[in-house]
Amino acid sequence: MIRAALLLLALCATLAGAQSPPPRSGLDFQGDDIRRLQEDDFANPAMLWVERGAALWREARGAAGKSCADCHGDAASSMRGVAARLPGWDRRLGRVVTLDARIQACATGEQRAAGFAPESRDHIGLLAYVSLQSRGMPQRVEVEGEARAVFERGRELFMTRVGQMNLACTHCHDLKWGRTLLTEKISQGQPTAWPAYRLDWQAAGSLERRLRACFVGVRAAMPDYRSDELTALQLYLARRAQGLALEAPGVRR
Amino acid sequence: MSAGRLRVPARARRGEVIEIRLLLEHPMENGFRRDTLGRAVPKNIINTLVARYDGREILRAEFGTGIAANPYLAFFTRATASGEVVVSWVDDAGLAGEVRAPIEVG
Predict the structure, then answer these.
(1) Candidate from A47, A51, A203 with C-beta closest to B69
(2) What is the interface pTM, i.e. ipTM, of the complex?
(3) Nearest chain A Cα to B28, which residue?
(4) Which of A218, A214, A207, A211 is nearest to A87 (CA)?
(5) Chain B nearest C-alpha distance from A117 (Å)
(6) What are the C-alpha distances in Å from A183 to residues A29, A30, A212, B30?
(7) Domain with B79 in it: what CATH number?
(8) Looking at residue A106, what DSSP letter applies?
(9) pTM for this one?
(10) Which of A3, A189, A210, B57 could disulfide-pair with A173, CB 3.0 to 4.6 Å?
(11) In chain B, what residues touch A199 (CB-CB under 8 Å)?
């Protein structure tokens, strides 16, 4: 009797301690066809972009005539874990940067070249190639200290109703995940598979493009690429996915 | 020249059935889409694809507009002799592509 009561107490304590369920990969909400496509590195169409990124890594660009490899060497070792800890505070730039912003800073600063146009083949290629080096590693971002304000802004955006549908991210991705929306299972909105190949686009795209598509979905004005809003949202999403293994480049419907 | 990935087993026994896998990078524009300014996007798909193994044609395909962007193909053939698998294709814009991979048959 006492043991049963203790067990019940322990159970209650566990339930109270778990404010939110553990993060689940977006792949859990996809069909077998998508899963097979993502798990097969040959058939995964995003790998076409990765190949472009790998070539770009060794390509000398800009007025400085430097390639990524000239400074960073072999991406397999130098870029390992980078995507897992971004977005984050960049001491040199004095702001929160996404992986994309970090690459842009290198392109315009170190290579003295033109930056990458959002969603261009080179842009997604390099993003996908660098992200691939962290595949399987748990997402670990730092939101204390300087990044705190941006993280709070991201959370606020996640919780704020927008658009004609008057929905916030949280209404679907915290409260309704696992349920069905038209023909789709609603996912938790985890960012760990991005950049990913989206069948709807017939192309690989960034998390920013996916987030903008969500804004269209609720009929709200889209934030610009590389805007402060999208950066803040991505930091919040990454913190929310803490511990979840990176799987980029993914495949999604 | 458009890009693609080709995978054949590096080694095979004579008479063995081998799988040849192919992933092509192509937008496969079906001609029905319009761009953001409302202009029709001209049809541009890979129309013909030919696979040769050791100089012999083993597959010829004519694609239609129903095939998705970045087409994936897998097919089987029998390993007969050491040689090269060469896959070439051409699209409506006249752009050609080719990928090749050697196979050793023992």
Answers:
(1) A203
(2) 0.84
(3) A202
(4) A207
(5) 17
(6) 11, 11, 20, 25
(7) 2.60.40.10
(8) I
(9) 0.87
(10) A189
(11) 68
